[in-house]
Amino acid sequence: MSERVIPLVDQRLHAVPALVPAQPIAATGTLLDGFARPLRDLRISVTDRCNFRCSYCMPKEVFNNSYSYLPHSSLLTFEEITRLTQLFVAHGVKKVRLTGGEPLLRKNLEVLVAQLAQLRTTEGQPLDLTLTTNGSLLARKAQALKDAGLNRVTVSLDGLDDAIFRRMNDVDFPVADVLDGIAKAQAVGLGPIKVNMVVKRGTNEDQILPMARHFQGTGIVLRFIEYMDVGATNGWCMDEVLPSADVVQRISSQMPLVPLEASAPGETAERWGYLGPDGQHDPALGEIGVISSVTQAFCGDCNRARLSTEGKVYLCLFASQGHDLRDLLRDGTSDAELSSAIGAIWQGRTDRYSALRAKLPPGAAHTPGRRIEMSYIGG
Ligand code: SAM
Q1: pLDDT at 363
Q2: Ligand 1 contacts CB of residue 47 (under 6 A)
Q3: Residue 174, CA distances (Å) to 42, 134, 161 in order
């Protein structure tokens, strides 16, 4: 039996101030990092709070009544988020995902969505504007989000068995309410919808096939995520990771699958399509995705930056240190200077955590520094 250690050091404090470089960095729509990876995707955490206590993300033992969430004054306002996003977009961001915590807990989120929906990429196109949610408030909010200009949603759902799901969210939340949220999102046109299922060996692996059957042919793309060693509070161990290859094999043995091309560079999910009777991928049956964050590194073309609730930029999900933009944002720094500061952060990026971990012998620990919680920077 592996022993679980849940350290309680607050990693949110670990950030360096973002600096305005002496040489301005122009926003040309193409900003490359230390490995020539362009900046394309920005994930914005709008709250560090969540109403679920999934043990792999916000375990109750840590995120309890004595946990100090960020005070309201620390959070970026909607105007600050929109200003920063505009500067990121000028550097080449095309896709923006709102996340958290649970983003739908942030009051009046649709106001932020409406502001972001006004932004245009350097090619003059609207952003691909999306949101990741646990679905608990989605039935209530889907229409307002759609009206505000949100394009689509990704909903997290770890199983269809009510008892298993209630145990995993650890707040006794029923599956039926999440399914209602998904149905409402689909009805108002927040699609194509993706459903993310984190697979933990021994916990919900028997939900893989029921989930695949449920979503096959619905136009909803089900994606299986390997349980990841993010943060420092979930007591992660390799024994509980079910490799994506096993997931594909289990589904394919019942519902044959064929590999599909990646939909975009930097796409985290490997796509598999359901075979029709003619032995070809049948688009009506749809597809699944697998996100092999543990067993297959995809750092090579990672084009994502993450903006925390309080204005720190993280360059990797496994980063141990952020770059604090909030002080610059609040001390009268001009757009040109802020834009240069963002440029310098991305140009200095050399993160490739998963690729380095993949080179270690099996079972070897890789802890280059204490890592930030997923609930703080978002998925
Ligand atoms: N509350 C929202 C939700 O539930 O989707 C957004 C935030 S949540 C941190 C984003 C995604 O991260 C969810 O799909 C969640 O299941 C996933 N996640 C959290 N911890 C994880 C872990 N240790 N391994 C894999 N996925 C994880």
Answers
A1: 56
A2: no
A3: 31, 12, 9
